[in-house]
Amino acid sequence: MTKVTDTPLAQPPDTQASRSQPWLWMDVSTSFRSRSGQMNGTLRVEQSMATALSELMAPQLRFCRYDPLRRDYVPLANAPDLGGKPVAAAPKQKRTTPLSSIKPLGKKIERAIRTSVRSAAAPLLQKISGSNGLPLIGGADSREVLLLAGENWSRVDYAAVARMRRERGTKVAAVCQDFIPVMAPQFFADGDFVTMFDAYAQFLIRECDLIISISQSTSADVMAYAQRHGGLRGAIELVHLGADLAAPEAGRRPQALSDAQAKRFVISVSSIQSRKNFDLLYHLWRRLTEQGTPDLPTLVLVGQPGFGSSDLLWQIAHDPVTASSIVHLPRAGDEELAWLYRHCAFTLYPSFYEGWGLPVSESLAFGKYCLASNTSSLPEAGAGLAGHLDPLDFAAWREAVLDLIRAPDQLAQHEAAIRQNYRPVTWAQSAHRLAEVLRSLSAAPAASKS
């Protein structure tokens, strides 16, 4: 596996042919489905990769999306631009309304109808797309590569991708952000999702020519899974994600944050779910508030509700003890997020398991010290400049937070070390590294067509 370094990466010969011939198809189906502007971590990665790759290798890059009616990938003129729009809070669920009990059934019926329609229309549309309609993706050039960088575990038609590789000679590369559902399934809502993700994991190890892992920890998880399931068909390469936020220098303060709260606060940025261990932060801030801790900063939780968060968020919303010391911001666009990073005292990330831990590297990129867990990829993201603690050790987190509050000089020393030593990977650098491994895949012999 190759590590990201600060040294320039080798570039292939810059010939006229290499500049003018498109060979990379990037699937932006996740962005296409989310044109309403709902932003999350996976969307941010797909959008950032699309933007950075466009700037680096525009003549060689084309965008596509999966069309469920055609059961194939179709070209797009451009990648959908969501413009860094904010994450939206999940709609409130009615627990006592009888109608809510039939919603899952309605969704199943709707999916069944859609599947039937697609099955009936697919053969005709496939013929159209191969003749005078939309062109087929793949097969025109032996160098062609399909890059999957979005929610590959939920919407990718594995059979369609396998058909492209076998019948058209297209090489397939997929970005793998984590293997958590098969490594720690207890953090997910139901067995259906874990089963679905296991099918994706099987696709990665059996059908992909290249798996692009975002951390050494995730690479180890992929290899461990592959060893238990017959080995890895293709290669695996490491490409670290960028940690720079595209936002104006000034940013914008969230309106939900009062003047008093904005004077001194800390942040924890992530979707609110059981795996992220926000319960620890809630109980920690409740204890510190009860004890009348001097100069206690406001705890700002930034992220939309997810699995396992309803009880916690209900407690936070109704707890009189923490009414003024904890704030939940379910919506935060890039400008607001940048303002929060720039003005916070420090950041917190007590997650049990991560594929990388982007909030840790983003915190360091803004020059802010982060207290994070010591599990999975988080020490890797911390780059030796963050504090790492056992996510189950409440006493250790309490002491570490109190040390930072009581000793501002210590916090200043941490920030000075970050400014001096941290070298964040930008999205431009990430795209440079990504282009390098994709070019190597493109130059490899094509899979034989059946």
Question: What would you say this structure looks like, in words?
Answer:
Residues 1-20 are annotated as: Disordered. This is Glycosyl transferase family 1 domain-containing protein. With 450 residues, the chain is of the alpha/beta class. It has two domains: 16-91 and 124-242 and 428-443, 3-Layer(aba) Sandwich (Rossmann fold), CATH 3.40.50.2000; 259-424, 3-Layer(aba) Sandwich (Rossmann fold), CATH 3.40.50. It is built from 18 helices and 13 strands. It has helices at residues 16-20, 29-33, 41-57, 103-130, 152-155, 158-168, 180-183, 191-207, 216-228, 259-263, 278-290, 310-318, 334-343, 358-365, 378-382, 394-406, 408-421, 427-443; strands at 24-27, 61-67, 72-76, 145-148, 171-176, 210-213, 235-238, 265-269, 298-302, 326-329, 347-349, 370-373, 387-389. Strands 3-2-1-4-5-6-7 form a seven-stranded mixed β-sheet, with helices on both faces. A three-stranded parallel β-sheet has the order 8-9-10, sandwiched between helices. Strands 11-12-13 form a three-stranded parallel β-sheet, with helices on both faces. Strand 12 (370-373), helix 15 (378-382) and strand 13 form a beta-alpha-beta unit. It is elongated and about 70 Å long. The model is unreliable at 1-19, 84-105, 115-122 and 124-134 (pLDDT under 50).
